[in-house]
Amino acid sequence: MLDAAASVWARDFSASLSTIAERAEVSRSTLHRYFTDRQALIDALLLDSLARLESLDDGSAPASAIYTLEQHLRAGVEMGDRVIFLFSDPNRFDGNPHWSADDGDEEMRALMDRARDEGAVAPEIPTTWAVTLFYALLYSAAEVSNQDLPRHVAADLAVQSFRRGVAP
Amino acid sequence: MLDAAASVWARDFSASLSTIAERAEVSRSTLHRYFTDRQALIDALLLDSLARLESLDDGSAPASAIYTLEQHLRAGVEMGDRVIFLFSDPNRFDGNPHWSADDGDEEMRALMDRARDEGAVAPEIPTTWAVTLFYALLYSAAEVSNQDLPRHVAADLAVQSFRRGVAP
DNA sequence: GCGAAATGCGACAGTGGTGTCGCAGAATGA
DNA sequence: TCATTCTGCGACACCACTGTCGCATTTCGC
Prior knowledge:
Two copies of one chain form a homodimer.
Chain A: H1 2-9, H2 17-24, H3 28-34, H4 38-54, H5 65-79, H6 81-87, H7 103-117, H8 127-144, H9 151-166
Chain A binds a DNA duplex through helix 3.
C-alpha cells in the first residue's frame, strides 16, 4: 500500500484514497483499516521514506564527503517514487511533526561544508544553493528515470552534473 | 488575479479558489466573473505564463546557443512564481491543449543540440538530461529566491551550475 | 474441515470546494 | 445628478472525497 501511495502521490498528491486503493489492489475499506486517516497514510509513507533515506549510508567505512554525497544521490535515485513523493513539493510537509525541515537538512549542510573543506565544492557557492542543487538533481534523476532514461544512467548523469556544477 | 493565483498555486496547487480570491483581495464572486471555471483560471494563468516565457527572447541579436540558454535561465528566474507554477509538477498540465509537452520542448532540445555543436555541452550527455537539468535549475533558483537568496544571486548560481554541469 | 482473522461490498452522513443566483451597495463616467 | 457598470455578500444545490458501519465472503493456520 505504501508503494501504491508513493507511486500515485508522486504524480498527483491530490489523488484520492480510492485511486491508491485501486493501485494497491485492495478495497478502500482495507486501506482504511491499516491507515485510519488520510493523514495517517501520509505520515506512514513519510516516515517510511525518510527511514529508507536514512538507512542508505550505514555499514560502509567513513569516506570523503563528496563521495558520501554521491552515494546518497545514487541510492536516492534508486528509491524512485519515494523520493519524488518526498521532494516534489518543498513545503508539502510544512506542519508535519515528522518533517523538521532542519531534520536531515542540518546534517546535509554539514556534509556539504565538509565537501567544501575537501576542495570538492567551490568556496563561493553558498551551502544553501549546493543543497538545493543536490535535491533538485536527486528529484530530477528520479523523475527522468521514470520516463526516458534507465535508472542508473540517470543517476550517473546526476552525479556528474552535481560534481561539476559545484566544483571550484 | 493571475498574480495571486500564481503565488498561491506555486506553493499548493490544490489550494481553493477562495484562497486565491483572498490573496487577490477580491471576492470569490468577482473571481468567478472573470474566470467561470477553475479550469478557466488555470488555462488563463498557463497561457499568460507561457506567453511571458516566450516573450523573453525577442529583440536581441542572435547569439550563441549557450548564451541564449543563459538568458532564458536568468529571465525565467525573474518570473518567480510563474515559473514555479509551470514547472513544479512536470505532468500537471498533461491533458491540457495549451500544454503540448513538445511545444517549447522541441525548441529547447534544438537549442541544446546547438549548444552541443558549439562545444558548450558534453557530447555524452543526452539531450533529455540537459533539458531536465535546465528546468530543474530554473525551478530551483526561482524557489530558492523566494526564501534564502536574492533573485539575481540565485540566477547567477543556476547559470554557473548549468554551464559547468553540462560542460565537456 | 473448522474457527479466527482478514478482506470486500455497499450504504451512510459529514464536509469542503464548486459553480450559480439575485440583490444591494459602491464606483465610474458622461 | 443619473445611469451604467462593477463589486461584495449571502444563499443555494451539487458533487467528490472522506471516514465509519455492518455484514457477507474469502483466506489462512491448525
